[in-house]
Amino acid sequence: GAYEIVVAGPDHGNPFVDVDLAFVFRRGDQSVRVGAFYDGDGRYVVRFRPPEPGVWTFLSDSSARSLDGPSGRVEVPKAEGKGGVRVADTFHFEFSDGTPFVPVGTTAYAWTHQDESLQLQTLSTLSESPFNKIRMCIFPKAYTYNDNEPALFPFERSGDDWDHTRFDIEFFRHLERRIDDLAGIGVQADVILFHPYDRWGFAEMGPAVDRRYLTYLVRRLAGHANVWWSMANEYDFMTTKTLEEW
């Protein structure tokens, strides 16, 4: 699991782009730098998944003076449970405690963008199925059988246009709740970062916005032990991105 630190900081202007914050965790000769994310209302969060138990010290590093310098220590106990999944012997998978993991996957690309009752039905169905991994999209999907307008989107709107400098906090909190729901029933969340099935412009935001989105997403989700990363689905259908950009 993740050790979470929450600190209060600037809430004026646009903290998503105006403030950068990271914590450097150290134990012996090990050093891990973990970026924080803005969670609204002057709240900044960092999630650290320690690679091993023991006492870790931490020191903040920030572009905002009020957030630069706070330090502390955390005593990480020996993990309970199996932990996250990692590659084993090149061609296989195992949990952190060495238990083998054999992925039996399914897909439900846009399940978190449906109404609440269908999301709960999806979780119920998965809990009674043999599947232990699900591929799912971050962005909503516009394609056959997926023509609804979701209630939440990753970005805030400015008039009729998306404000790509401001993330919708409720969207990401909802996404995290669903990822935690999957963990509760023993299912890995294979999240697809980009896809071409789009009518909102998310498939062609440009490299600068893509990088901002990826940074924010990874800082929020990397602390979840059941998250896997998939760069894209049918990336070659996204004709506005070059191979160099991928």
| C-alpha end-to-end distance | 30 Å
Q: Report the order of strands and helices.
A: EHEEEEEEEEEEHEEEHEHE
Shape: globular
Q: State mean pLDDT (0 to 100 scale).
A: 95
Compute the number of strand runs. 16
Q: How many H/I helical runs?
A: 4
Report the uncertain regions: none
The percentage helix is: 10-25%
Sheet having the most strands: 4 strands, antiparallel
Helix-strand makeup class: alpha+beta
Strand content: 25-35%
Rg, Cα atoms, Å? 19 Å
Strand order of the largest sheet: 3-2-6-7
Key features of this structure:
single chain; 246 residues; alpha+beta; 4-stranded antiparallel beta sheet; 4 helices; 16 strands
Give an overview in words:
- The chain has 246 residues and is an alpha+beta fold.
- The chain is built from 4 helices and 16 strands.
- The model has no long low-confidence stretch (mean pLDDT 95).
- Strand 6 (54-62) and strand 7 form a beta hairpin.
- It is 19% helix and 34% strand.
- The strands form 5 sheets. The chain has a 4-stranded antiparallel sheet, with no helix packed on it.
- The protein has helices spanning 15-18, 116-127, 169-184, 207-221; strands spanning 3-8, 21-27, 30-35, 37-38, 43-48, 54-62, 71-76, 85-88, 92-95, 100-101, 105-107, 133-137, 155-158, 161-167, 188-194, 227-232.
